[in-house]
Specification:
The complex is a heterodimer of chains A (89) and B (234). By secondary structure, chain A is an alpha+beta fold. Chain A is 31% helix and 25% strand. Chain A has a single domain (4-85), classed as ACT domain (Alpha-Beta Plaits), CATH 3.30.70. Chain A contains three helices and four strands, in the order βαββαβα. In chain A, α1 crosses α2 (51-61). The longest helix of chain A has 11 residues, at 15-25. Chain A is globular. The two termini of chain A are 23 Å apart. Mean pLDDT of chain A is 79; it is low at 73-80. In chain B, the strands form two sheets. Chain B has a six-stranded parallel β-sheet with strand order 6-5-7-8-9-10, sandwiched between helices. Chain B has a four-stranded antiparallel β-sheet with strand order 2-3-1-4, with helices on one face. In chain B, α7 (207-218) links the parallel β9 (202-204) and β10 (232-233). The longest helix of chain B is centred in the middle third of the chain and has 20 residues, at 109-128. The two termini of chain B are 31 Å apart. The model of chain B has no long low-confidence stretch (mean pLDDT 90). The chains are: A alpha+beta (89), B alpha/beta (234). Chains A and B meet through α1, β2 and α3 of A and α1, β2 and α5 of B.
Chain lengths: 89, 234
């Protein structure tokens, strides 16, 4: 099962590099990425080769994250903003 | 949630990259962007191609689209080109220069189609004059799904206005509409049954006219100020 992670990046140069390096240090490949800073708060969605190591990397960085299972039709009915804002539906 | 700005604050450099699909690739790219003082506006995976395994140097490759603000085009390309993970790189155009501002139409299929007729026709007039306005549509029926779609508009880059087209909307959709307006995206609704007409910026009975006015409201080359029409019903 593919797991999509959503993290909120700081709006400053190097924010993406920090996350990507933390994953690379654990030999985790980013297998899919969608990040849009334009008109948003900088939410980054990604899938990786190793979800467990990805969780470790986020924890080490102290970054809050959400996980999504895209196999359900509408698992939460929430948008990215809902997830980022911590709304539970 | 940031309030929607009328235009991107700064121009962006857009590049299409073919990269070796390995763990440190994104880190190296992001490092170079940061070193160039750039700010990533968008990054997305276009496709991944597994190694064919025919040649000894066959490697899995991924295609990426990257838009970077506050970076010099030539310096950025030169810096990325220099990475051993980068197989190929070419300049493309940022999405705001291709698809531009987006008018989103959500609701019942019959009404969405009529709104789109007006919106696309009006967008054509402005795009001929050099603007870039696109019209996105999604026909939906269930109320909960419409409410989710309304909220998700806040996550769509370059979305500038939402048109709600249908016969009956209210409840959760009205709450979602208020949230979206608070995020800086105005809403035009068709005149319909339900509370939605009390929670949008403008109510228009004729769907073709609603689509036309929606595009006029976001166009630079039109003299139509939605703020002066707020709360009215036509």
């Amino acid at each position: 099962m593919t797991i999509w992670f959503t993290v909120q990046l700081d709006d400053r140069p190097g924010a993406l590099a920090r996350v990507a390096q933390a994953l690379a240090d654990r030999n985790v490949n980013i297998t899919g990425i969608v990040g849009v800073a334009e008109d948003t708060d900088g939410a980054l969605m990604l899938t990786t080769s190793d979800p467990a190591a990805t969780r470790e990397a986020f924890a080490a960085l102290g970054i809050a994250f959400e996980e999504h299972d895209p196999t359900g039709a509408e698992p939460t009915g929430l948008s990215i903003s809902d997830v980022v804002a911590g709304r539970s539906g | 949630m940031p309030r929607r700005q009328p235009e991107p604050a700064t121009p962006a450099v857009a590049v299409h990259l073919e990269v070796v699909d390995r763990a440190d690739t994104m880190a190296r790219i992001a490092e170079r962007v940061a070193a160039a003082g750039g700010r990533v506006r968008t990054v997305s995976t276009v496709s991944r191609v597994a190694s064919a395994g025919v040649e000894p140097d066959d490697r899995p490759v991924a295609e990426l689209e990257l838009e970077v603000e506050q970076a010099d085009e030539h310096a950025l390309v030169a810096s990325l080109e220099d990475l051993d993970a980068v197989v190929a790189i070419r300049l493309t155009r940022p999405m705001d220069k291709v698809f531009g501002k987006r008018v989103i139409v959500v609701g019942g299929g019959a009404q969405v189609a009529q709104v789109a007729l007006g919106a696309v026709s009006e967008a054509d007039r402005h795009n001929l004059r050099g603007e870039r306005i696109s019209v996105d549509t999604i026909p939906y029926l269930a109320g909960e799904r419409i409410a989710s779609a309304v909220r998700a508009v806040a996550d769509l880059p370059r979305a500038r206005l939402l048109v709600l087209a249908g016969s009956i909307m209210g409840g959760e959709i009205s709450r979602a509409a208020e949230e979206l307006r608070a995020a800086g995206i105005p809403i035009i609704a068709l005149n319909m049954v339900g509370s939605i007409t009390d929670h949008v910026d403008l109510v228009v009975s004729d769907p073709v006219q609603a689509g036309t006015m929606a595009v006029m409201a976001v166009a630079d080359t039109a003299t139509f100020d939605l703020a002066r029409q707020r709360g009215r019903k036509y």
